[in-house]
Design a protein that fits this description.
mainly alpha
Length: 94
C-alpha cells in the first residue's frame, strides 16, 4: 500500500459543494477526488520545455488556415483518399 499523508486545506464553499456533488456521483471518496485532481494538476504543471516553448510560440503567433492547407498539400494522404464519385472500384484478382 502507498504511504499517505494527511493535510488540511481551505477552499471556497462553492468549490467544496461542487466537489461533493461530483465525487458522490462518481462514487469517489474525498481523498480520491483530491488525489486525482492533484495528480492531474501536477501533470499539467510538469510540461516539458519543448511543449512549453511550442505553446508560448503558438500563443504569440497562432497557425492560420494557410499553414494547415500548405501542410496538408505536402503530405501523401491523397493516396488513401476515396475514389472519385462515379468511378467503380477495380475487381480483385483471385
Amino acid at each position: 500500500m502507498t504511504a499517505t499523508t494527511k493535510f488540511a486545506v481551505s477552499i471556497p464553499k462553492e468549490t467544496f459543494a461542487a466537489v461533493e456533488r461530483v465525487r458522490k456521483r462518481l462514487g469517489k471518496s474525498r481523498s480520491a477526488a483530491v488525489s486525482l485532481a492533484l495528480e492531474q494538476w501536477l501533470r499539467m504543471a510538469d510540461l516539458s520545455d519543448a511543449d512549453r516553448r511550442y505553446i508560448d510560440g503558438y500563443r504569440a503567433q497562432p497557425e492560420d488556415s494557410t499553414w494547415a492547407k500548405t501542410a496538408a498539400a505536402s503530405t501523401t494522404w491523397g493516396q488513401w483518399s476515396e475514389k472519385p464519385k462515379g468511378e467503380k472500384p477495380k475487381a480483385r484478382k483471385r
